[in-house]
Design brief:
Rossmann fold; alpha/beta; about 30% strand; 9-stranded mixed beta sheet; about 35% helix; about 200 residues; 7 helices
Length: about 200
């Protein structure tokens, strides 16, 4: 059943209701996107993590030498991270006040929930949050179209699928430069994934 409401609001409600299930079913390994960021910005850089979720990537980013600003739009994730002793801010990516400036915005499996008009707004907010020369590192799902899926959480979440060239054009239209979009799906995986890297003009 497709929720008849704003995709962002409905998806966030699913995360609120099933935060523990998501944490249980999420891999604990260091993601390849962390390695991408390590190659782009120096140790000691400030990183705004959009959608910290269970907090696995934030720990890996800190281990790599970055100062991480944890954020999430899901209050349940924010509360659990605070219980673990982390400083984390509740932030909906559609809200324009992200703070900053930071050296990089890191968004692993977050931007894939936004339909194209909302994604452009989020990209513009990210651009405003980084200092000149700052970096965006993100992952999205490869493909075409949009859908509601109950996969993984047994509850509806909205997904937008992208081919590299349309995504690159959208990111550039939002003001980013040096945009790179490439497929990074592991052999044998049942889903296509895209890695997005971009910079703000120095």
């Amino acid at each position: 059943m497709v929720p008849d409401e704003d995709p962002n609001a409905a998806t966030l409600r699913t995360y609120e209701r099933h935060a523990d299930r998501y944490i249980e079913r999420t891999l604990r390994d260091r993601t390849a996107l962390v390695e991408e960021l390590v190659a782009l910005v120096p140790r000691g850089a400030t990183v705004l993590e959009l959608g910290s979720g269970p907090g696995v990537d934030a720990l890996a980013l800190e281990a790599a030498g970055f100062a991480v600003h944890r954020t999430d739009a899901t209050r349940a994730f924010v509360e659990r991270l605070r219980e673990q002793g982390h400083d984390v801010r509740e932030l909906n990516a559609l809200d324009p006040e992200w703070g900053g400036p930071v050296d990089a915005v890191f968004a692993n499996a977050v931007l894939l929930h936004f339909p194209p008009p909302q994604l452009r707004r989020v990209l513009e907010h990210a651009l405003a949050a980084v200092r000149p020369g700052g970096v965006l590192a993100a992952t999205l799902k490869g493909g075409s179209g949009e859908e509601w899926s109950t996969r993984k959480l047994d509850a509806p979440r909205h997904f937008t699928y992208w081919e590299p060239e349309p995504l690159r054009r959208l990111v550039e239209a939002a003001g980013w430069t040096a945009v790179e979009v490439r497929e990074t799906t592991e052999p044998g995986a049942d889903e296509r994934w895209l890695t997005l890297l971009a910079r703000r003009v120095a």
